[in-house]
Amino acid sequence: MSDVLSRSTPAVGASQSGSTAPSRRTFLQGAGLAAGALALGLPKRARAAERTEITFASAKFFGKQTMAQVVDAYNQSQGKIHVTYVELPPPSSSTEVHTALVQQLARRTGTPDVFTQDVVWIAEFAGAGWALPLDEYFNASVQSQFFPGLVAACTYNNKLTALPWYVDSGMLFYRKDLLEGIGAKPPQTWDELTAAAQEIQKSGKADFGYLWQGKQAEVLVCDLVEAIASNGGSILTPDGKSSALSDDKAVAAVQFLYDTINKTKISPSDVLSWDEEPSRQPFTAGRAPFLRNWSYVYAIAQDKAASSVVDKVGVVPLPHFAGGKSAACLGGYQYGVNANTKNREAAIEFLTWMSSPATQLQFALQLGIAPTRPEVFEDAQLGKEQPFMKQLKSVFTGATPRPVTPKYAQVTLAIQSGVSKALVSGNIKAELEAASAKINAIVAG
Fold first, then answer.
1. Where are the stretches annotated Disordered (predicted)?
2. What is the C-alpha to C-alpha distance for residues 432 and 422, in angstroms, rounded to an integer?
């Protein structure tokens, strides 16, 4: 067994922020399960012989609470199933997480029974026959309770093969004070963003206008998905069998990104080597009015020790082209059930608890993980304790998945290479046509 996937439940300790993590009862009470646990009188080490044993492998997340505590809360809430938590590396080490899961799922031994997966692996795992179709357990009525974009991302060949867990997506951070200074509102179109960025730059109140991520990496694909979808285009055709990257709408979107550096000059050429953090730092240092990034930026922007723009930052959906709609690249991890699990009903029961509104609320409050159920965003407690997260419902409503294909690992490399060449050379149409040819060869192979 891979060292990464050796079975262990790490000791509960301090959270990443240094505060002491709440007890398991805190989670049980928050999820409305304390009474059941107390009635059962289950000790922490309860592993009665009659309990069904399953394993749950998940990337490592930190907050006021750990994933180990969440699993512990479930074990204490009932007496039928015992879940052993298998800790994987954090999402920042996604290659290692992916490798560990592939090694285990490919063995078809049924371990782990339940797992979490990056949204871009769903088609790969389903296409390989490693993920159990879930439609018979979570019907259309249940699926309608999640963000539609996430359900689409969790669907492969018209079958639900993953269940939404948490969501993140690209969004536009903006300086409220700088926009107010020029009498402007948050931009809804890319033209409005460009005009406001240029005016603020000209006033000398910002060094840069718009910061984004153009590094030849996965984040470039995310930025690309948003730009193209906001122009009504896509990277793959709807059937996923051919490239649409050289279509007119996609070409125009990439041309816009190139122009931010070379024509309108609202972005520095450095964006071509930037991923998330290098692009975030000038923004929180007060050097730009606009930044495309993920939700984590807001907490840093409000930290007086790390930010020069405390209480000056707002967030809205990303702009769109004339006639288009805002699009936010879908991120986050989702649940899967091993197609070879020997404990299918127990796995589904655990997954039902993990995806419930009550548990999602606790994930939001204790781990800072955004819910995938729109109804949870309306909870008064969430609005009181996580007001920024409550604002994100409108952003996540427009979440757009990256290309859905079992060959995503190959497709993304072709996209990154082709688009990077286009952004450097300015030969947009030619480079996107070359990239499309490579993508067609991959998805047809």
1. 1-24
2. 7
164's enclosing H/E stretch is strand 163-164
CA distance 40 to 151: 35
Tokens linked to 167: 């969501």
Tokens of 185: 């509102």
CB atoms under 10 Å from CB of 1, counted, come to 13
How do residues 52-98 score in pLDDT, each as one tens digit? 999 999 998 866 778 899 999 999 999 999 999 999 998 878 888 99
> CA 159 to CA 139: how far, in whole Å?
11
Query: Collapsing DSSP states into helix, strand and coil, what is residue 182?
Result: coil
Strands 328-331 and 399-400 come out as parallel
Q: Which residues contact 201 (CB under 8 A, 6 or more apart)?
A: 207, 208, 209, 266
Cβ of 3: how many Cβ atoms within 10 Å? Answer: 6
Alpha-carbon distance of 241 to 244, in angstroms, equals 10
Give per-residue burial for 384-423: e unless 16+ CB within 10 Å, then b.
Answer: eebeebbbbbebbbbbbbbbbbbbbebbbebbbbbbbbbb
| Among candidate residues 334, 402, 346, the one with its CA nearest the CA of residue 372 | 334
Domains of the chain: 3-167+332-400 (3.40.190.10), 169-329+407-444 (3.40.190.10)
User: Residue 106: exposed, middle, or buried by beta-carbon count in 10 A (0-12, 13-18, 19+)?
Assistant: exposed
94 or 342, greater pLDDT: 342
